[in-house]
Design goal:
47% strand; alpha+beta; 158 residues; 8 strands; Alpha-D-Glucose-1,6-Bisphosphate, Chain A, domain 4; eight-stranded antiparallel sheet; globular
Length: 158
């Protein structure tokens, strides 16, 4: 398996609560986030909002799609959303929400291993392209969130 660690940071003047609502409602991402082809709920969350499963299908500029199921494993209201994923990639994604004066900062950490044979075979040479594709999809997310919230969203990657 090939391993990837991604960190994306979005910063906006939009209120934390509005940003939280947009990110938390993942089934609505296809409405505003280019690259999210589908976000299909498979299992509703429990009363604690944990255990819900959504199947995502993503497509960037490269000629492949990624599909995986994400199960919500941790939520701290207005602070953190964590999900374990399994499918074409396996690992953990964590959204963190922070206030910095008037600025809302959103940090997305994505630590995954690829499970598709072809991705593992080409990883030594394709890793920079896969990283570029991921960053592009996250840029599309920042642009979509900006339009969705009516506030500029700036992005940096790490």
């Amino acid at each position: 398996m090939a391993h990837y660690d991604f960190l994306t940071i979005w910063r906006t003047l939009a209120p934390l609560e509005a940003v939280w609502d947009a990110i938390h409602a993942t089934h609505q991402w296809p409405e505003w986030w280019k690259g999210v082809e589908s976000a299909q709920p498979l299992k509703p969350p429990g009363q604690d909002e944990l255990g819900g499963i959504i199947r995502y299908r993503w497509k960037g500029r490269l000629p492949y799609t990624i599909e995986f199921d994400a199960e919500t494993t941790r939520i701290e209201l207005l602070n953190l959303i964590e999900a374990c994923v399994d499918g074409d990639v396996r690992g953990v994604g964590v959204w963190e929400f922070l206030r910095d004066g008037n600025i809302t900062e959103i940090r997305y950490s994505w630590q995954v291993d690829t499970t598709r044979l072809w991705m593992n075979l080409i990883s030594p040479v394709a890793s920079p392209l896969i990283r570029w594709n991921h960053d592009l999809i996250m840029r599309w997310g920042a642009e979509g969130l900006s339009e969705h919230l009516g506030a500029e969203v700036r992005m940096k990657t790490g």
